[in-house]
Amino acid sequence: MTKDMKSNGLRLQVLICAYGKNGIERIADGKHPSVEGVEYLVSWQIDEEYDAPEALKRCDFRIFTSNTKGLSVNRNIALSKATAPLLLISDDDVDYTEDGLISIINAFDNNKSQDIITFRYDSTSDKKQYPSRQCDLANPTKGYFISSIEIAFRRDAVKDKIWFNENFGVGAPFPSGEEDIFLQDCLDKGLKGIFLPITIASHKGETTSERNLMLPSRPQTKGAVFLRLHPRQWPLRMIAHILREIPMWKAGIVPSPIAYALNWIKGAYKAKKYKVFPTPDYSQKYLHNDRS
């Protein structure tokens, strides 16, 4: 497929989540090129009535509004509205290029046996390291972790089968980690996925994790997430994480190792106590709780 590809109908939807006036304005200020076969589907959580910015009143944008809160709730609404064969998870502060979006479609065309493909993005602050070559998501390169805005998948493999766990993500009891739980749920359902070292987007500013380095919620969320990902090994992995963070603790960037460990254990305990796993079936929940 090339930039001047002939019309082949809708191929890819970029599922963008936004909250409030600031969120929708960030989308309007971002870079969302018009690409044949690509549509931007915006799930916009509103706390009062606003008009969508003029910049978003385009034929390749669809905006749905809801009086809900929580990032994973928003992602589930977007997923419930999706109709394209290929879907990409996104946020309100991500910039795209025509080449990047086309490369996603090409990647799936060239890897027909894969249900999920994760990519990479450029950032002004994130210290994230990526594998230098393709790897299997069921057995990823050591140290690699995904970000939600890197995840693309075939709609038919996921929709009405797998949803974002609403106990995780901004606005939830555990304010991050929703992408880790989502990916693990996909793999547990037998979906196949790979990482490709292809840059598809750029993101300005700090990530949620970088903003929350000193908050107790960060290790608590890690405790809950690792309980799900590694139910038998999470104590050993907690120790490994603590050892890696000692230099940052000495630099005053993160809490003490003792506080980190106590909060990690507290998070795992809370996840067990409140039975946050497995993900509930949301397949019918969003059919009547939003306005378009």
Structure description:
The protein has 292 residues and is α/β, with parallel strands linked by helices. 34% of the residues lie in helices and 19% in strands. It contains 9 helices and 9 strands. It has helices at residues 20-29, 71-81, 98-110, 155-158, 178-188, 208-211, 217-229, 234-250, 257-273, and strands at residues 12-19, 38-45, 61-66, 86-91, 94-96, 116-123, 135-136, 151-154, 193-203. Strands 1, 2, 3, 4, 5, 6, 7, 8 and 9 form a 9-stranded mixed β-sheet that branches. Strand 1, helix 1 and strand 2 (38-45) form a beta-alpha-beta unit. The chain is globular, with a radius of gyration of 19 Å. The two termini are 32 Å apart. Residues 1-7 and 287-292 have low confidence and may be disordered.
Which features characterize this protein?
292 residues; alpha/beta; nine-stranded mixed β-sheet; globular
